[in-house]
UniProtKB/TrEMBL annotation:
InterPro entries: Hyethyz_kinase, Ribokinase-like. Its EC number is 2.7.1.50. It comes from Benzoatithermus flavus. This is Hydroxyethylthiazole kinase. It is an enzyme of class 2 (transferase).
Amino acid sequence: MTVPSVPEPAAAAPAAVFPAAAGLLARVREERPMVHCLTNPAALTLSANVLLAVGAEPSLSADPETVRDFVAGTSALVVNLGMLDPAREAAILAATEAAPELGRPWLLDPVKVELSPSRRKFARRLLARRPALVRGNAAEIACFAEGGDPRTLACAAGTVVARTGPSDLVTDGARTAEIANGSPLMAAVTAVGCAASALAGAFLAIEPDSWTAAVAALLVMGVAGELAAARARGPGSFAVELLDALYRLDERDLLERGRVR
């Protein structure tokens, strides 16, 4: 297979990112999109609560026989491969077949693919179905990106790639933005990364430009994480404060705290 050439990256204009993110957050709160999350059991509650905190609505059914109906009734699909089992695998295949037919954008979160050859194979099968966005950590993205470069994967798969970690990088192969917000406490609570994928699903539901949606969602999550960490006493209170921070977040918070380049 010939790998498409990777263009030189174009940095985002930081001044334009913050009002765009604030505008999309306001639209989520106004339009209340429903997002169907096929996520792992450990992430169900936090993902649902993060969506509710920003004004979106979660849908969580993983029944292979009815999942197409739920995808049809929602505005975006989030697929998370954590704790994968045969029933969820069947539901994921049915949902990702239905999503493009129904005109629903979908996100792939390839959890722990670096640890399992069979899961990597399944994730490659899903990548061929052209998700609008792939969100993963450095180890997960490196399984599919030559040299670990997210831009290589974005060009080869024809998608937007968000590599999250101490700083987040979002690229479609041509445009690239790096978001330096967040807190170490985000890694001390189970499924915060999975919940970030769910949040990105809410932004994909209302914004056809997947790159803009991903940058906005990760900026919102990162700033909320910083605000939550400032009030938290540890991981337990951080999880609660994160939901409160997302609920209260406004454009001023993004402008004052956002670090994008």
